[in-house]
Specification:
alpha/beta; Rossmann fold; 2 domains; 14 helices; single chain
């Protein structure tokens, strides 16, 4: 039997949660219910982990929660308390999978708990709000949550809802049964690599060669979400090295643009002390959303990736500022680091004949980076475009050197 944590607001979803709990029991697992109720009512006494314990773990009390008019604050308190309890239960070996049940607020809180759980740990969110535009990304963020759209409202044990809950119970229990035999990566042989359409040729060549050397290369699409997830997974100890071909999310975070990969971008590998090779795909371009366009952006050199995405050339001032951030982050590294920079363009977008190609301005970034980096970090400059075979070979050589 595997322990299953079922997260719900029992004051509004009590009967439905108990039905789901019973289905999980009949499938041979051991569920326990955590109540995130904020207003009391019919949910009292129905959960193994009652709301008052969750509120206490979050630094408050149910009395304060139920007397407050600040709903956002109450949700944060209950989520924080639920995270603490969940982490303890997992550490104690009492919980092996998590399933949530809720509408908009219940889904936000339950998935907030799931965000704190590592990649590979079974987690399913049964939500009536999963299909609302924009919300699914808030529920998922960088976690491998399975979002189970109920379609119908979770209100009343109709046959249709019972059908949904039965299938959700089967899904989680099936994952639990297969988890013990699922492939587990060998950390020392597994390398995380950021990639992007404009450096796809380079990424494919690097991956193919390293796979021939016996490594597994796990790709992350560096558009702000997947590369943010990579940082979390590096911290969780899933990788033995990082090849960061496309760290443009660093500058995007500095200026609040669309590929913003968060404040921890380019830091996790250094903190973990694992080898890393850094390059510059997309670093010399910015992607502000059209709603945040400044008048001067319309005057910049640009490249239209497609009908939805436009890359604008970074200004010299921005290039220098981002180089300073790179240096500060990489200088904290406790493992080997090499930076490999192509001198004839940092991507397929940034190549001779393209409107944003400007190696002289790119050199300002390189000069500033060299000036700020500690001496133990090598900066290798290659007379090639990032998509040239010669550059891929330089990345592969640098990677094998840091792995020695």
């Amino acid at each position: 039997m595997k322990g299953v944590l079922l997260i719900a607001t029992m004051d509004t979803k009590g009967k439905e949660a108990l039905y789901l709990r019973d289905k999980i029991k009949t499938l041979g697992q051991a569920p326990m219910v955590m109540d995130l109720s904020m207003k009391g009512g019919e949910g009292r006494g129905l959960a193994e982990i009652p709301a008052y314990k969750v509120a206490k773990a979050g630094g408050s009390s149910v009395k304060q929660i139920r007397g407050s008019q600040d709903l956002d604050h109450c949700m944060k308190v209950m989520t924080a308390g639920a995270v603490k309890i969940t982490q303890r239960l997992i550490k104690e070996g009492r919980v092996h999978g998590v399933i949530g049940l809720g509408g908009y607020r219940g889904s936000l809180m339950a998935t907030g708990v799931m965000h704190s759980i590592p990649f590979g740990f079974p987690k399913i969110m049964v939500s009536s709000a999963a299909g609302l535009p924009g919300l699914s990304t808030q529920f998922l963020k960088t976690s491998d949550i399975i979002l189970f759209h109920s379609v119908i409202e979770i209100a009343g044990l109709t046959d249709l809802l019972k059908n949904v809950l039965h299938r959700a119970a089967c899904a989680l229990c099936g994952i639990l049964l297969g988890r013990d035999v699922a492939p587990r990566p060998n950390r020392t042989e597994t390398i995380a690599m950021t990639m992007f359409g404009p450096c796809e040729k380079c990424a494919k060549r690097v991956r193919a060669t390293l796979e021939e050397e016996g490594y597994q290369v796990i790709g992350f699409h560096a558009a702000g979400i997947s590369d943010r997830a990579m940082e979390d997974m590096v911290t969780d100890g899933l990788f033995g090295a990082v090849i960061d071909l496309a760290p443009g999310g660093v500058g995007e975070h500095l200026y609040g643009f669309m590929r913003d990969a968060g404040p921890n971008r380019l830091e996790s590998a250094g903190k973990m002390g694992i080898p890393q090779v850094i390059s510059t795909c997309g670093v010399n371009h910015i992607t502000p959303s059209k709603s945040k366009y400044k008048p001067e952006y319309t005057q910049r050199r640009k490249y239209d990736l497609d009908q939805f995405r436009t890359w604008l050339r970074m200004s010299p001032r921005e290039l220098k500022a981002v180089a300073g951030v790179f240096a500060r982050k990489l200088n904290k590294s406790t493992g080997p680091v090499k930076v490999v920079i192509p001198l004839k363009g940092w991507s397929s977008v940034d190549s001779p004949g393209k409107p944003t190609y400007d190696p002289k301005e790119d050199a300002l970034f390189v000069q500033e980076l060299k000036k700020g980096l500690k001496k133990s970090i090598d900066v290798l400059e290659v007379e090639a475009n990032m998509e040239d075979l010669e550059f891929a070979r330089a990345v592969i050589k640098a990677t094998l050197e840091v792995l020695e």
